[in-house]
Predict the 3D structure of the following.
Amino acid sequence: MRGRRTDRVSVLIQRELSDIIQRELRDPRVGFCTVSQVEVSPDLRYADVKVSVVGDKKQKRNSITGLKSAAGFLRREVVQRIGLRHAPELRFELDDSVDQLMQIDRLLKRIHTQDGISSTADDEAMETD
């Protein structure tokens, strides 16, 4: 069960990580990415960080690799900014929910387009009767 403290720490870590990655991280492997979610364990030892990356599979893989290699730097910066007594271990993983949403949107548009074509054909058939 998650508590209010872990929720607050998760939000703070997400905010600070986003800022650090955008402004201070100089790893060329890390492309345009967004910290979409942070889940902190109840004992505050681990923080699972979900990151959404814009680009192809290679760019996404490189960004995650770059973030994992910069985890020590990011961990230190987060602890200094938030003022936690112990630094949680940052575990990065790719968040593909944006890609899934875009795929669903494309499918819905395709269905809507096909539905529009079939309803137009039905309307024309009814007018000729």
Q: What stands out?
A: The chain has a mean pLDDT of 88. Residues 54 and 124 are 43 Å apart (CA to CA).
